[in-house]
Amino acid sequence: MSTITHTTTATQQKKVLGTYGPGSTHWVGDGFPVRNLFPSNGIQLEVSPFLMLDYAGPQYFKAAAQPRGVGEHPHRGFETVTIAYQGSVAHRDSAGNSGVIYPGDVQWMTAASGVLHEEMHEAEFTRSGGTFEMIQLWVNLPAANKMSKPGYQAITKEQIPVVPFATGGHARIIAGSLDGAGGPAKTFTPLNVWDVELKAGERVELDVPEGHNTAVVLRKGDATVNGAKLSGEARIATLGQEGGTMVFEATVDSALVLLSGEPINEPIANYGPFVMNTRQEILQAVEDFNSGRFGQL
Ligand code: MN
Questions:
Q1: Element holding 117 (H helix, E strand)
Q2: What is the rounded average pLDDT for all residues in the chain?
Q3: What is the DSSP-derived secondary structure letter of residue 272?
Q4: Which of 54, 83, 90, 141 has the fewest C-beta atoms under 10 angstroms from its C-beta?
Q5: pLDDT digit string, tens, across residues 198-229
């Protein structure tokens, strides 16, 4: 099969730094059974500006009377990105935003100076039960934007452009761009978030800008990226900043998420839901939260 090149300028292949499984498996509240694909497995600097990725499910939930999920909690200093694949999440926050993230939708929440929010299984999904599958990604903000006003982008499935591959697969461009298709998410630093599906036997070449840190997450399937094998579920490969080209080959139908971004080369001080640059800023966040300065749900 010939290789379809999705790029205008050929660059060298990115070097694979490593492949990993989840570092920890745990529940977030009682609604999100997650496999954490970083940083619990030791991956951190090589995926800047990305801070954390939890892969929830796929898991079947029985019908229930009360919504499961995670109740009121704060965030400061970064963005939370929720990609729903199966099942739906209802959200509301102290900035006055609320909504439902349905399958295929993405919520891009800029916590910045601080929000309180809750993330619950949506009411109808709770009543009917079903399979739940979601990703939550945390994206760092540069120091200059950590205390900016909170924001919220509710991105529906219909707003996300799909770039078809000649051999049957496709990429959904949530953020960044591919082949002239631009993702709807507005970001503070240059980055790409693409949902990639490959058919069995498919081989595609995808390019991101040189200098970007890059990670490829396998949701399910069996595929190689620049020769490194990802097989099964919940695996991740990290790739270096040099070069821009990635060659994907799938042996079975496979679902992947590509993350790339310009690194934010600033110190990180983090404590739970707060990610700042200094310990002093973390202490300030705790004090602001404890004294009610994050507002109210
Ligand atoms: Mn949250």
A1: strand 115-121
A2: 96
A3: T
A4: 90
A5: 999 999 999 999 999 999 999 999 999 999 99
In this predicted model, which residue has the larger pLDDT, 210 or 5?
Answer: 210
Number of neighbours of residue 46 by Cβ within 10 angstroms:
18
CA of residue 138 to ligand 1 center, whole Å = 10
pLDDT of the residue at 4: 58
Q: How far apart are the CA of 70 and the centre of ligand 1, in A? A: 8
* 198 alpha carbon – ligand 1 mean position (Å): 30
Ligand 1 centroid to Cα of residue 265, in Å, is 25
pLDDT tens, position by position, 157-175 = 999 999 999 999 999 999 9
Q: Using one digit for the tens of pLDDT, what is the confidence trace for 232-252?
A: 999 999 999 999 999 999 999
Name which of 76, 5, 2 is nearest 275 in CA terms: 76
Q: 84 in a domain, yes or no? A: yes
Residue 279 in any domain: the answer is: yes
Tell me whether residue 131 is in a domain: yes
- Domain extent at residue 28: 16-290
Asked if the model's pLDDT at residue 87 lies above 60, the reply is yes
Residue with tokens 């697969």: 169
Dihedral over alpha carbons 286, 287, 291, 295 (to 10 degrees)? -50
Domain total in the chain: 1
In a domain, 6, yes or no: no
Determine contact, residues 176/190, Cβ cutoff 8 Å.
Answer: yes
Angle at 32 between CA 159 and CA 42, to 5 degrees: 95
Distance (Å) from CA 146 to ligand 1 centroid: 16
Residue 80 CA to ligand 1 center (angstroms) comes to 7
DSSP 76: B
CATH code at 105? Answer: 2.60.120.10
What spacing in Å lies between the alpha carbon of 199 and ligand 1's midpoint? Answer: 33
Encode pLDDT of 92-114 as tens digits: 999 999 999 999 999 999 999 99
